[in-house]
Amino acid sequence: MLYLNEKSLHDVGIDWVSLVDVIESATRSLGDDDFAQPIKPYLRYRDLTNRIIAMPAFIGGEFDMAGIKWIASFPGNIHKGIPRAHSVVILNKAETGQPEAIINTALLSIMRTAAVSGLMIRYFDKIRPLNSIKLGIIGWGPIGQYHLRMCQALLGDRISSISLYDLRPIDPRTIDFVPPKKVNIVSRWEDAYLDSDVFITATVSSASYIDKPPKNGSLQLNVSLRDYKTSTYEFMKNSIIVDNWEEICREKTDIEMMHLENGLQKEQTRDIVDMVKNNIMESYPPDTPIMFNPMGMAVFDIAIGSWFVQEARKKNIGQELE
Predict the structure, then answer these.
(1) How many helices and strands in the chain, by DSSP H and E?
(2) Where are the alpha helices (DSSP H) in 139-232?
(3) Who contacts 1 (Cβ-Cβ below 8 Å, separation ≥6)?
(4) In terms of Cα–Cα distance, which of 70, 78, 79 is closest to 109?
(5) Homologous superfamily of 114-293 in CATH?
């Protein structure tokens, strides 16, 4: 059984195009119904803002792997100088159930999250070519930082400006992988949101605050899920994409609030399979903002983990355990 940690993943190398390819292949397996993924339970105790989530899944196709991600999210950790999230993924051979690998790092989950957003950008770019785009990111923790790395890798010089906002001061040294002249560290969330062609939420907010209309024709990647007030429903009610309705319409997400307060129904949304297999983005008018809401799917963690294990074995990276 192979053991990988964060250093192992960096030694393998983060190839964003390949990781987005992995998510696309896994999505096609979802469309072929070659997967299993029960609703994930949340473990809460004492401080109920914290949670530990069990995410089991099987994904077929080129992966043919089962497994589970066990991920802890403790938002208050940022005030203690330790990461908000801690995660372990165990992979099992689909045919025998034998443990294949343990991946002990939250980085895998972070990369999965960014790669799913990358797939949305890939398909958005097909229908609305992204040239000289304005990118906005709210939240500059690991999720926000790796989203910018992903966008830089996929879009490169096509990004004309980057607006970043966080409640805490942003260290310029964390942005040294992009040309400084493109970056604006702004003092209001509105300055990162209102004029962005691609906008990403990556906060730990528990209360929504975005109450203004998005830019026409923009892509809204609602990664942190609890940032948009229900008043914004009117601007995007006909162009909402989710990863999985049953997963995301709970836990006080923006989607659940829109369901409860605005009457949003599953039938009014489309999912990530519709996007990949049916090109659903083509059906939205060009000036309509498209909103993607990903709760996080275990099948994608298993797929990304499988890719890293395969690459690590090729490069003799990691530690074999008895």
Answers:
(1) 10, 16
(2) 142-155, 189-193
(3) 99, 100, 101, 102, 320, 321
(4) 70
(5) NAD(P)-binding Rossmann-like Domain (3.40.50.720)
- Number of CB atoms found within 10 A of residue 317's CB: 19
> How far, in Å, CA of 8 to CA of 27, rounded?
26
Main-chain phi, psi angles of 156, to 5 degrees = 50, -125
Edge-to-edge strand ranges of the sheet holding 219-221 = 183-185, 159-165, 133-138, 198-201, 219-221, 290-293, 240-242, 270-271
Residue ranges of the chain with pLDDT lower than 50? none
Domain with CATH 3.40.50.720 in the chain: 114-293
125 contacts: CB under 8 Å, gap ≥ 6: none
Residue 290 dihedral angles phi and psi, to the nearest 5°:
-110, 130
pLDDT 10s digits, 231-253 = 999 999 999 999 999 999 999 99
Token duo for residue 150: 């992903």
Report the C-alpha gap between 293 and 124 in whole angstroms.
14
Any bridge partners for residue 179, and if so which? Answer: none
For residues 215 and 115, what is the distance between their CA atoms, to the nearest angstrom? 23
8 A C-beta contact, residue 57 and residue 36: yes
Q: Say how far apart CA 239 and CA 281 lie, in whole Å.
A: 8
266 CB contacts (<8 Å, ≥6 apart)? Answer: 245, 249
CB 52 within 8 A of CB 72: yes
- Provide CATH code, domain 2-109+298-320: 3.30.1780.10
Q: What is the pLDDT of residue 90?
A: 98
pLDDT in tens, 178-205: 999 999 999 999 999 999 999 999 999 9
Across 235-245, b (16+ Cβ under 10 Å) vs e yields bbeebbbbbbb
Quote the pTM value.
0.97
